[in-house]
């Protein structure tokens, strides 16, 4: 891959990642507000507008990207990249960076929205639920499309989703 192609790929990933996660953030806030009795409830928080959600998730994506690069450098330095295939490496990078990105999201919600720390934590938990749910759907779809139905069924059996 040429440096220009890599740069365009990374830029597109940041743009797409920011847009998608901003939607998931708004869904997480809506889920939190629904769980406390609706947007008119005393414990509800205002849903961030599109611009604020994009800004929050852009900075969160940048922190996640930086943390993944540091973890990747550590994997390469320890030689662990040779023991994992490409999918496993990406999974490890995303799973290990997730706590850092969630802490970043919590801090940004507390700083940029009129919300206390506990509510920001609960919104972050709702966002994480939406994130994990969507990620599982996307991963299973990719497995089904690339490896075939048999491999997808094997993965679902290993996860004990189906018998």
How would you characterize this protein structure?
There is one protein chain. The protein has 163 residues and is mostly helical. Helices cover 80% and strands 0% of the residues. The protein is built from five helices and no strands. The protein has helices spanning 3-35, 50-78, 86-112, 117-147, 149-158. Helix 1 crosses helix 4 (117-147). The longest helix is centred in the first third of the chain and has 33 residues, at 3-35.
Keywords:
mainly alpha; globular; 163 residues; 80% helix
Quick summary of this structure?
By secondary structure, this protein is mainly α. The protein has five helices and no strands.
Q: How many beta strands in the DSSP annotation?
A: 0
Q: Specify Rg, calculated over alpha carbons.
A: 18 Å
Number of domains: 1
Number of helices: 5
Uncertain regions: pLDDT < 50 for 5+ in a row? none
Determine the fraction of residues in helical runs and give it as a percent range: over 70%
Name the structural class.
mainly alpha
User: What is the arithmetic mean of pLDDT?
Assistant: 84
Q: Judging from the principal axes of the Cα atoms, what is the shape?
A: globular
Q: Sheet with the most strands?
A: none
Order of helices and strands: HHHHH
Topology:
Layout: H1 3-35, H2 50-78, H3 86-112, H4 117-147, H5 149-158
Helix pairs in contact: 1-2, 1-4, 2-3, 3-4, 4-5
């Amino acid at each position: 891959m040429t440096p220009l192609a890599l740069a365009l790929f990374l830029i597109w990933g940041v743009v797409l990642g920011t847009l998608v996660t901003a939607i998931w953030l708004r869904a997480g806030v809506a889920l939190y507000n629904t769980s406390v009795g609706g947007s008119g409830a005393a414990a509800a928080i205002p849903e961030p507008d599109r611009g604020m959600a994009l800004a929050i998730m852009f900075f969160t994506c940048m922190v996640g990207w930086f943390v993944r690069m540091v973890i990747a450098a550590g994997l390469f330095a320890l030689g662990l990249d040779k023991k994992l295939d490409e999918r496993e490496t990406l999974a490890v990078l995303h799973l290990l960076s997730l706590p850092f990105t969630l802490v970043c999201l919590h801090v940004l919600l507390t700083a940029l929205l009129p919300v206390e720390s506990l509510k920001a934590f609960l919104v972050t938990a709702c966002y994480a639920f939406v994130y994990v749910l969507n990620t599982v759907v996307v991963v299973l779809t990719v497995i089904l499309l690339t490896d075939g139905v048999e491999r997808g069924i094997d993965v679902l059996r290993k996860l004990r989703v189906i018998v």
